[in-house]
């Protein structure tokens, strides 16, 4: 990564405002998945070891620019303190005289966690005034929130224009791994895409077709391709507006693009519903495809097992329901057993890998679904672009 890193800054005795991604699921006042918190720990611990005073800020959920107790950062602060093994001082606001006073009176031990950045309307608007108020709280700014790097917000872009800025260790690692896949992959390079909509991943498909040796398509978006080929798909999810695009992509990709050979179908997308496996040209009226079938898993496994580099984003079916999770599980296990450098690109594929307990079998799991897809697509990430280049 050609951006300045936190390791390039002198942070001793300085207050460092760190944009982290603590947008984690919370139930009954407790964090239920702390992956993103854990991934921020190396940067926080590095700053503490260098004698810095980290002040952390993150968004949580979508509170629409106003205070909402449901999205307060208190459960995150409590969980972070347990993981960090150091005091976490949680403040009830992110800006204002009270915050400035509390920071002035802070004993400097451990870290400070500010309140949810999205309690302020200026956050998502990248309001310069909010950015200036936040910049007044610190001497240096570090962005370690890859999961929010595709958003031009006050805490990802605005502050970087007000303070000496650098990338955190996680942000550097995320970009370096994606670059290794996209720019210098060991071949064969196999890309796997799932999920519901072709429209969400058109640019990603085009980009990966330019660099991958094989592109395996699963998830509901495969039915748009099947309909573009003239097949009957029953009640399966189809984006009719993208049939021509799907046809064009298939024509351009040739043998490089591999679609499912069979699918698991049902009349209802719910647990306990009757389901059966059919070939892709055998979906009856009133039924819908909800997973890839066993023959597809085997054909995908053949290409995956031969791969040296793998990028995977998106489940193969409705993996939240056990009857439609076998395709995703089969692909996940194939990737885990491949021995290839494997990058899992955020979102539901990470949830699937975590559910199966295969996190440690993957080379790298991205913390940013949307950000990783936009980066793969070739889009500039505002939160990265705002950081200065290495000297």
Question: Would you write up a description of this structure?
Answer:
With 391 residues, the chain is of the alpha/beta class. 36% of the residues lie in helices and 16% in strands. It has a six-stranded parallel sheet. A six-stranded parallel sheet has the order 11-10-9-15-16-17, sandwiched between helices. Strand 9 (189-193), helix 8 (198-209) and strand 10 form a beta-alpha-beta unit. Helix 1 (35-49) packs across helix 2 (74-84), helix 8 (198-209) runs parallel beside helix 10 and helix 9 packs across helix 10 (243-253). The mean pLDDT is 96.
Strand adjacency order, main sheet: 5-6-4-1-7-8
Give the beta-strand count.
17
Q: Strand content of the residues, in percent?
A: 15-25%
Mean pLDDT: 96
Low-confidence stretches: none
Alpha carbon gap, first and last residue: 12 Å
- Give the fraction of residues assigned to helices: 25-40%
Q: How many helices in DSSP terms?
A: 15
Q: Please state the structural category.
A: alpha/beta
